[in-house]
């Protein structure tokens, strides 16, 4: 009887893995054949002119995805410029991924889509949207795009959520809260919500297993909990994160988690949004949302920092062996689109094929261990371990 059950389990696992592989293969074939000219989803509206199909976004007033009476933090008249509805109906959603992204970062978003296609995520009951703000033509340091390009991307992939506030580093708190409010309003059935940045690589599958094993409750946030000097406001006026005493007088922030990536629940998101609309605005979004608002909301923190790395080369090391799971679930990409795509594809491969964890005795031969604190771009030197240094990818 036991052998029969084991045989049934193995056969079921084989069928499921084959089904997911077929989904991914179909997606890859679609990409190869389309050469960028195809649309994953039908257009909301289209017209025929001179034999060409022109796509236009749906008017904001014509759909429930574009409410006219929303507020956002201290914005009394908030509207969506673009919105998506991946969680429509009563379909099961184990994880909703909300990715804060800059309009000019289409290459990063496309790396996500290639590494973890929507069709593959759907097989695991995972949904994903990208959070954008209104294009800021005067913003330096970013690739410039126009709104038409964003609308075309949205119509091709149906995964853009764009708010009507200007794209700015000091407006990230608006984008962050918009994502949480979107989760509560448009995907309330989600078991868990992952908020992450578009330049961060995350193994969704290992992370989801981890927080489930931690028994994340309704009013908790799981992430890299800040400690020590990380809780001190930066008073250096030359710093990107300078905070004056007028903006924030206390000498320490409340406990908060890194905004790179964290997991929470819709129940917690609802409370965070509610307090955002009755509390003073603060522009550093992870401190504001997961610290100040969490303290007001009674949301507690679960520390999963051991699964984070600040070293991009640790993720590159993980990609050297495709048959073992990475010890790190979350880390920086240095805006390396190839790394983001490869890391996410590897995480999907290991989910399908049940990759074992890396054997402790094998680790020294797999990676260069970094022993210097990260600089601005996390580009680090390595030290030789066991007499061996493997070139970086």
UniProtKB/TrEMBL annotation:
Q: Which GO terms describe its molecular function?
A: hexosyltransferase activity
- Tell me the membrane topology, using the record's own terms: Single-pass type II membrane protein
Q: Name one GO biological process term.
A: protein O-linked glycosylation
Compartment list? Golgi apparatus membrane
Which terms are listed as keywords in the entry? Glycosyltransferase, Golgi apparatus, Membrane, Signal-anchor, Transferase, Transmembrane, Transmembrane helix
Domain of life the protein comes from: Eukaryota
Q: What are the coiled-coil residue ranges?
A: none
What's its top-level EC category? transferase
Q: Which InterPro entries match?
A: Glyco_trans_31 (IPR002659)
A single GO cellular-component term from the record reads: Golgi membrane
| Entry EC no(s) | 2.4.1.-
Family as reported in the entry's similarity comment: Belongs to the glycosyltransferase 31 family.
Q: What is this protein called?
A: Hexosyltransferase
The species this protein was found in: Daphnia sinensis
